[in-house]
Amino acid sequence: MLSYQHAYHAGNAADVHKHALLALALEYLVRKDKPISYIETHAGRGMYDLAGAESAKTGEARHGVQALLQRFAKDHPYRKAIEAFRNEHGPMAYPGSPLIAHQFKRSADRFQLAEFHPQEHTVLSEAMPKSGIHVYHEDGFPWAARICPPTPRRGLIFIDPSYELDHDFSGLPSFLGGLHKLWPVGVIMLWYPLLKTGEGAEMAKAIAALGLPKCVRHEVSFGAASGHHRLIGSGVLCVNAPYTFEADAKAVGALFQS
C-alpha cells in the first residue's frame, strides 16, 4: 500500500495516451467562456524528470513521449502543453496530469487535487501554482465523493489510481455510478491499465454496462516494457464525453500504430 511512485513510469506510452485524451477534453471544455472545475483523485507529484534515476532505471519514457511526441501535429493540445511546459522547465521535464491540466487553466477555473502518498503530496504542493488551486492530502475516492458536485458545476474529474489495491478494480464501477449521480453534468475520465491478466479490461466492461451517458471507451495496445511487466496497453473511459472526444481519441490511437 502506498508503494507506487509514478516517477519510474512518467512519460511512458500509457501517459502519452491518457494525457493526450485529457488535453483534448480540457481544450474542448475551455472553448466556452464559462469557468470549469477540474478535479483529480490521484494527482501524483505533478512534475517529473526524465533524466532522473527513476526514469533511467525503467527506460519507459524512451518508448513513450520521447518516441511519440513528434507524431502529434504541432497544434495538438497535448503537444502544445508538453512543449509549453518544457520551455519553462527544460527538455527532459515531463508534466503529470495536474500540470498538463494547468496549461488550460483560466483565472476563473477552480482546481482541486488529491494525493494520499505523503512524499508525492509534498512535491505536488510545491510544484503547483497557488492561484485557484487547492491540494489535499487525502484518499481520493472518499474525498471526491465528499466534494462533488463542485462549484462551478461544469467541469471534469480525472481518476488515475495506482491499481496496487484490489478494490481499485473491484470498487470502481460502483464508485463511478455513484459519482455520476452526485455530479450528473460532470465529465468523468478514468484511466485503466490493460494487463496480461485482464483485470483492467474486465473492469471497463463492467463500467460500460452501467449505461452511463455519452460513455466512450478507448484503448491502445503496446508491448510490455520488459518481460516481467504486466502492462500491455492503456485504456480511457469517459462519461459525458465532449462532442468531439470519440473522433479525437481515434486519431490519437492511430498515432500509436504509425
Q: Biggest β-sheet, characterized?
A: 7 strands, mixed
Helix content: 25-40%
Shape call:
globular
What is the overall number of helices?
Answer: 11
H/E topology pattern:
HEEHHHEHEHEHEHHEHEEH
Low-confidence stretches: none
Q: State the distance separating the first and last CA atoms.
A: 37 Å
Strand order in the largest sheet: 5-4-1-6-7-9-8
Class computed from helices, strands and strand pairing: alpha/beta
What is the average of the pLDDT values?
93
Proportion in β-strands: 15-25%
* Number of strand segments: 9
| Cα-atom radius of gyration | 17 Å
How would you explain this protein's 3D organization?
- This protein is of the alpha/beta class.
- The protein is 39% helix and 19% strand.
- A seven-stranded mixed beta sheet has the order 5-4-1-6-7-9-8, sandwiched between helices.
- Helix 6 links the parallel strand 4 and strand 5.
- Helix 1 crosses helix 4, helix 1 packs antiparallel against helix 11 and helix 9 runs parallel beside helix 10.
- The chain starts with 12 loop residues before the first helix and ends with a helix.
- The mean pLDDT is 93.
Structure keywords:
258 residues, alpha/beta, seven-stranded mixed β-sheet, globular
Per-chain topology:
Elements: H1 13-29, E1 37-40, E2 47-49, H2 53-58, H3 65-68, H4 77-89, E3 93-95, H5 97-102, E4 110-114, H6 118-127, E5 133-136, H7 140-147, E6 155-159, H8 166-170, H9 172-182, E7 187-195, H10 199-208, E8 216-221, E9 231-239, H11 245-255
Parallel strand pairs: 1-4, 1-6, 4-5, 6-7
Antiparallel strand pairs: 2-3, 7-9, 8-9
Helix pairs in contact: 1-4, 1-11, 9-10
